[in-house]
Design a protein that fits this description.
Length: 729
Amino acid sequence: MAQFRLKALEEVLNREPKDFVREDNLVSDYYGKLVFDQPKMKKYLSKEAFSAVMDAIDNGTTIDRKMSNQIAQGMKSWALENGATHYTHWFQPLTDSTAEKHDAFIDHSEKGGVIEGFSGTLLAQQEPDASSFPSGGIRQTFEARGYTAWDPSSPAFISETTLSIPTVFISYTGEALDYKTPLLRALHSIDKSATAVCQYFDKNVSSVKANLGWEQEYFLIDEALFMARPDLMLTGRTLMGHASSKDQQLDDHYFSSIPTRVNRFMQDVENEAYKLGIPVKTRHNEVAPNQFELAPIYEEANLANDHNQLIMDIMLKIARRHKFRILYHEKPFAGINGSGKHNNWSLSTNTGVNLYSPGKNPKSNLLFLTFVINTLKAVYDNQDLLRASIYHAGNQHRLGANEAPPSIISAFLGTEVSKMLDLMEESVVDRKMTPDEKTALKLNIGRIPEIILDNTDRNRTSPFAFTGNRFEFRAVGSSANCASALIALNTVVSNQLQKFKTEVDELIEKGTKKDEAIFQVLKELIIASKLIRFNGDGYSAEWVEEAAKRGLTNVNSVPEALSVYARPDVIEMFENMGILNQSELHGRVEVEFEKFIMKIQIEARVLGDLAINHIVPVAVAYQTTLLKNVKNIKEVFPADEFEQLAGARLDLIREIGGHISAIKAKRKEMIDARKRANVIEEVIEKAKAYDETVRPYLSDIRYHIDKLELIVDNELWPLPKYRELLFVR
Ligand code: ADP
Ligand code: MG
């Protein structure tokens, strides 16, 4: 067998599960050990420094220079005691990962040696050399430098031996160059808008926070097999590989017993996560072979997203310890399920109320319905933007591929909540409610004193599903930074809540009673957003037709989906809401287009190379063996027996020849298409050219390679096959 592949398989078969050192017996004993959390701040900071941080966290006040010096000293002492030697600002540029640049805690001392130094300035602000981070041209237009600034709402932590300080990353003129800045703005916005609406119901509500519970799916592949697949190494997905005869047909992987090696890896990850205060809770096998999931207990959205970014990084590192490689790509293997990252999202008040939890009495039910209905309206009005927020090269393989929600945005409510909405829609006849109608409606709602939600009333085919006490945005890709989806979602809901408030206030001003005003506006919203509600099978062909009839949009191209960010109404909303201004949006969409182009370009190059230097040579070698065999038959046997003995062989030789020629021809065409695309100046046009003229070759060429894989002698095939990648562990 081809040397590399054989060696890799041997290596995997000899692997033993790796041990790791558990931190302590009880998680509660070491949870958050490496986090500079509130108890540690209390211990290491003066009273006034502590309350300055608390004030910054709770009320967004700025921390002055003197205070940040004090905080830095406390943080430094704690970090040094816990083995840190370096510090870094930890931020989330518009790449696919986080960024850090470590500096040692050393300064010249007055006596000539060095001392461990760390000032308030270094804590609060740094200037990483930002020129190599994508900005979509923002920095050219404005100011070359960018800086990172401390986000006190996400606590500092020690990663290996580095004190890591979560920060935003912005240009000198204040433009956001990262995911965190607009996320914080969107969370601030929804806090204000939701609080204002809550005030109709309860004057004690003074703040509302958004929560996020992510569910991270991923694949694990043995390191040796991974290294034998250049396509996995360079693009994160397999660009070729015939389907294994058996993969997920029997559903025998989902929730089945976790393999020991994988279980050790998971325990190791959990151990690290707990030290870093990440409340991971659930682990299980997913649908596809070698696919798994990890989910935490939900947290405040900004912190939860930092934790997701952090754990993705930790998992990459720990996977290596266990001789695995982790794949976050949305579609590493054709023909079997890919990976997503459900974003469970809710809003809760400072008074402890989850706004998406049905209440126990009519008043709290009305509060619940207010938030559900406004959310639906926001989703309906902004379906294109929500799609744009989750669309990229990797996720494109998944969406609408019968394993993930389609590229049509719809919302699932379940039978109970749908019934409530229908009831409200019918009860209120027009803007002027008669006292009877009002009572009827109150009673109708009141008649269901507690909406008992059936936990099995789930819909796994909906991109945006209500799941009892939260909405689950299920279309997010596994490799994504959740912030992209959360920025869009929180912004549009915040915007809708503001509109709602304006309309209700207008009615109240005209003399309508508060409750009645709320009812009336809600009813209008129910009617206006009805088309987004869909409780049926989102994967079915009928839904695609039905959605088209409803006028819901359905987009399957990345450039088209992303161009929504450049639409005037979208820009206007983001600007009005104070989330992203025009140049920030422009920068972002440029970065996304560039990423898309680069990803397709890399895939095209890798596939072209592998086709020529891995696949064609073995196909030729096998063809040569067949040819020799045919020659021998001709020499040994009489002519009248030749056709019977060698005929099938000749067909095979022709078939192989056909595939080789096709691969070579298509590769050449693909290179030409790339050359034509590369000279296009306008980035959106270039992205479209890559999408329409280069991308199709990836599957065209693959088709011929996968056919060859079936024909060519297994002994010669150079790359680990799907059956090996997915079942050998
Ligand atoms: P599943 O959707 O597979 O049934 P779980 O019930 O385990 O999954 O929940 C998935 C995620 O949803 C978890 O991270 C959980 O903490 C989170 N979650 C639960 N309730 C809420 C809520 N009110 N707001 C946000 N996230 C939540
Ligand atoms: Mg879920």
